[in-house]
Specification:
With 343 residues, the chain is an alpha+beta fold. Helix content is 38%, strand content 23%. It has 3 domains: 60 residues, Arc Repressor Mutant, subunit A (Orthogonal Bundle), CATH 1.10.10.10; 156 residues, no CATH class; 78 residues, Malonyl-CoA ACP transacylase, ACP-binding (Alpha-Beta Plaits), CATH 3.30.70. The N terminus and C terminus are likely disordered.
Length: 343
């Protein structure tokens, strides 16, 4: 992944070094590039033409000295990373892999799978060491997923490769599965694998945090056609069957644009006034999760339905009120110091 410094007479190695220099965001005089690579300015000009032929948008500037710089093109060319950059990107992708980020979930995991496939062993060890030594301040409400499991699954999805793994069902039952993986899907809280289960001869969804010892078999397959057309739709229908749907009805004492920025993209409130909006949606979520999501939105709201959510939030508010009963003076007891800034 780093710079290739040996044998500047070798054209591929020299082109890689030239490309690495040009990917630094600055303008490089041709004479400086020639000095850096120990070649003539004429060779630099020929190498620039080779890079352009490969699709790299290298722009030349006119003037007494002249120079070159890499500019944005119509396509994303391959990037060269030094050791520090590769480690930084891998750590960032690993950290994000266990906490779904709306809109970039599957792409992030694919990128992580590609990067870890080519990382030298010494860099892979550094990435693991850094991640094991750090703990994120915030976590999701679900079980965490190891990046190794996600990248293993992503690799078999991309490569159309059959996958074996152990699976623990919700009741604790352990089974062995052989599947044709189709897609990884993030619901915002958890990762799921949509796959065709060869043992059951039917499509299944698997919670990735319940998957253990994923093993790519090396056997390739031709992807089957998913009944619903796309993985997201199939996943939504599967969750609705197993968990049940509820009709959510909530009024917010805030503008619609404020509320929509704090909700998943499929939940869109409708403005009912300049500073009010209302959300009607059929969702496949537990009342516990809905209560938590609403409570963390930092806005006043009124729950109109479903009745189960109204009851749950009424009971929850009672428990929360009882938890702070008697602590009327903020900051006077240990129980009310959780909001203080860390030193």
């Amino acid at each position: 992944m780093g710079l290739i410094l040996e044998n500047m007479t070798d054209t591929p190695a020299r082109l890689l070094n030239l490309l690495s220099l040009l990917q630094t965001p600055r303008e490089w005089p041709g004479s400086e590039l020639a000095e850096r690579l120990s070649v003539s300015p004429r060779t630099i000009r020929r190498d620039i033409d080779r890079l352009r032929d490969l699709g790299y948008p290298v722009e030349a500037t006119m003037g007494a000295v002249g120079g070159y710089r890499l500019v944005a093109g119509t396509a994303m060319p391959p990037l060269l990373l030094d050791d520090e950059e590769a480690v930084a990107i891998a750590v960032g992708l690993r950290a994000g892999a266990g906490h779904a980020i709306e809109g970039v979930e599957e792409a992030s995991v694919r990128a992580l799978a590609k990067l870890e496939q080519v990382l030298p062993a010494r860099l892979r060890h550094r990435v693991s060491t850094l991640q094991n030594a750090t703990i994120p301040l915030t976590r999701g409400d679900g079980a965490t997923v190891t990046p190794a499991t996600l990248t293993a699954l992503a690799g078999t999805v991309t490569g159309h490769e059959r996958l074996r793994f152990g699976y623990r069902a919700g009741d604790g039952t352990e089974t062995k599965r052989l599947v044709e993986p189709y897609r990884l899907v993030s619901t915002g809280r958890r990762w799921y694998l949509v796959a065709y289960d060869l043992g059951r001869e039917d499509w299944r969804t698997f919670r990735v945090d319940r998957v253990s010892e994923p093993f790519p078999t090396g056997a390739r397959f031709t992807p089957r056609e998913l009944p619903s057309g796309d993985a997201a739709t199939y996943m939504a229908r599967s969750m609705a069957r197993t968990q049940g749907e509820v009709d959510l009805d909530v009024e917010f004492a805030a503008p619609a644009e404020f509320v929509v920025a704090r909700l998943p993209s499929h939940l869109v409130p409708v403005a009912t006034g300049p500073d009010r909006c209302r959300l009607h949606a059929r969702v496949a979520d537990s009342v516990e999760w809905l209560a938590l999501r609403l409570a963390l939105m930092d806005v006043d709201f009124t729950v109109r339905g479903p009745d189960a959510l109204v009851t749950y939030m009424r009971d929850l508010s009672g428990r929360l009120a009882a938890a702070v009963a008697g602590n009327r003076s903020a900051g006077t007891t240990a129980h009310t110091r959780v909001g203080r800034r860390p030193l």
